[in-house]
Write a structure and sequence with these properties.
By secondary structure, the chain is of the alpha/beta class. The protein contains 16 helices and 20 strands. Belongs to the FAD-binding monooxygenase family.
């Protein structure tokens, strides 16, 4: 290469603009990401961006638009305490209303200027010299002092690797990527899985399909859904007297706090609830053989308790078959169960959950020692107070390890973590510009040891089931084994003793004029 060409390239590189720098990068625009953005603005932090890989906000409530999609937590508890909604139309809201609520929060708190849509994060790398994060996105690079990962555990669908699936001639899609162009009327549809999505999909599509086959690897405990419209008078009262909305939320919260002991310390107390669930099955399923196949053998609560008034009645219809085993093979349009039973299908819908204990975002985060968060978590996810990880300074996750709930609203946990985020930023302000906090390995291990000790008596560990709460080694790295009040207390403020403080190197001041001559004279004497 000619010398002038080399010089031209060096000059172009030198003239390349520096990446944009912001104080905080928030990844994701679901409840966690939007909540973080609101909290940042309320703390007076405006130098931040929210990076969203999709074309609109909403997170899992944008992605999951399948027929019948709704929340199993009461509406007034499944909303931010700082953004109450007096106009929820039902006691349990559907996906369209929850998504509309998140859009309204975005506008009410002026978040649009901070949000960058279609801006997927490709890589995040900690720069140990400059003490900042280098963030590569689909729309270009930027740097940040702090990263808040709010991608959530229910963002990346998990589809099993089924032999022969590529030979299937019909439509195949996951519940979280519903193909609204697929016409199911008069078709033979196979639904794989019996989780929260499947029990909503099955009764929604059963009346219109010619035949529905449900592949059930493990039956779920399903309780009645006590849902009703919220009347105009109630909504008027909540608008005119906001305290009534707060009181309603408080009652819903208190009831669930009282339930925690049964889930965490005394699972035997769930026996009555289990009997009610058995009665719910018997009321709708008259065939003894089918009823037996739909009755779980594990303690209720070990997997998430599901809510539906329509699921069992749909399974009792003549155009529905239940294969009580997983899907093991596909041979063209023939689906083969693990027990050898076969069925024909025109459409396959996977309701097989998400990458929860192996979140893909962890492969894109590179810490201080040059390894990814996924590598750091190869033996199981763990963090300090569900928020920070050793070796990943100034990086925080919302809905991190062991922050999930089995009986209440995740919004309560998110808001507690936002308190921790706010104090984290205050501590950095006190420490001075360019400072960083890195969770100490000992502190992370101590916190997780306490969590896992508490987990030993919970229904999630002792109930006799295998659930998505457990990782590949059988360790429960998702659920919080105590009350939301206890978690809020544990995340009220940052304890600096649990962190190493990193500071930028101080520039070396040049010696004063004549200092060298004076030093030589002294040495000579």
């Amino acid at each position: 290469m000619a010398e002038h060409e080399k010089g031209h390239k060096r000059g172009a590189k030198e003239r390349a603009p520096k990446p944009e720098h912001v104080r905080v990068v928030v990844v994701g625009s679901g409840f966690g990401g939007l909540g973080a953005a609101v909290r940042l603005r309320r703390e007076g932090v405006t130098d931040f961006v929210v990076l969203e890989r999709a074309g609109s906000v909403g997170g899992t409530w944008r992605d999951n638009s399948y027929p019948g999609c709704a929340c199993d937590v009461p509406s007034h508890l499944y909303s931010f305490s700082f953004a109450p909604n007096p106009d929820w139309p039902r006691t349990f809201s559907g996906q369209p209303h929850i998504r509309a609520y998140l859009e309204r929060v975005t506008d009410t708190f002026g978040l649009r200027p901070h949000i960058r849509l279609n801006c997927e994060v490709l890589r995040m790398r900690w720069d140990t010299e400059r003490l900042l994060w280098e963030v590569e996105t689909a729309r270009g690079p930027l740097t940040a002092d702090v990263v808040v990962s709010a991608t959530g555990p229910l963002s990346d669908p998990k589809t099993p690797d089924i032999p022969g699936l590529d030979t299937f001639p019909g439509e195949v899609f996951h519940s979280a990527r519903w193909d609204h162009g697929a016409d199911l009327r008069g078709k033979r549809v196979a639904v794989i899985g019996t989780g929260a999505s499947a029990i909503q999909i099955v009764p929604s599509i059963q009346p219109e399909v010619s035949h529905l086959t449900l592949f059930q690897r493990t039956p779920a405990w399903v309780m009645p859904r006590v849902d009703r419209p919220i009347g105009a008078a109630e909504r008027w009262l909540h608008r005119r007297i906001p305290a009534t909305t707060a009181a309603r939320r408080g009652v819903l919260w208190g009831i669930r706090e009282l339930q925690v002991q049964a889930f965490t310390k005394h699972p035997e107390e769930l026996g009555l609830v289990e009997q009610l669930a058995r009665t719910n099955i018997a009321r709708a399923i008259k065939d003894p053989a089918l009823r037996a196949r739909l009755t779980p053998s594990y303690r209720i609560g070990c997997k998430r308790i599901l809510l539906s008034n329509a699921y069992y009645p749909a399974l009792a219809q003549p155009n529905v078959d239940v294969i009580d085993s997983g899907l093991s093979e596909v041979r063209g349009s023939t689906l083969v169960g693990a027990d050898g039973r076969t069925t024909e299908a025109d459409v396959i819908v996977f309701g097989t959950g998400f990458h929860v204990t192996d979140m893909p975002i962890a492969d894109r985060v590179v810490g201080a020692e040059g390894h990814t968060l996924a590598e750091s978590w190869k033996d199981g996810m763990k963090s300090l107070r569900g928020a920070t990880a050793a070796g990943f300074p100034n990086w925080m996750t919302v809905i991190g390890p062991n922050t999930g709930l089995g009986n209440s609203s995740m919004i309560l946990m998110i808001e507690a973590q936002l308190n921790y985020l706010a104090d984290y930023l205050r501590q950095l302000d006190v420490l001075g510009p360019g400072s960083a906090l890195d969770a100490r390995t000992g502190a992370v291990d101590h916190w997780n040891h306490k969590v896992q000790e508490r987990m030993k008596t919970t229904v999630w560990n002792t109930g006799g089931c295998t659930s998505w709460y457990l990782d590949a080694s059988g360790r429960n790295t998702t659920i919080w084994p105590a009350t939301t009040r206890a978690f809020r207390a544990a995340t009220r403020e940052v304890n600096l003793a649990e962190y190493d403080v990193l500071r930028p190197p101080r520039p070396v001041s040049p010696p004063p004029p004549g200092a060298d001559a004076e030093r030589e004279a002294v040495l000579g004497a």
